[in-house]
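We append the chain.
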Amino acid sequence: MVTIRLARAGTKKRPFYRVVVTDSRSPRGGKFLENIGTFDPAKDGTFEVKQERLSYWTGKGARPSETVSHLLKKAGKAAAANKA
């Protein structure tokens, strides 16, 4: 099964995450199919994702992890608040 999840990067005590599309059996920092965004908790929780690639992969059947789902909902609410 294809999953959209976080892959840790960065150094010790300074995490940085990439939002990647990967096979669910691969390890957290292992091979991935595509890098579609980033999450930087050190910079006020900056979350960026390529929406067109996210919709492409979800259309193909990829499922976001719980953490990525939570971040997407949070980013959607923030975007809606900025428009209002």
Remarks:
- The first helix runs from residue 51 to 59.
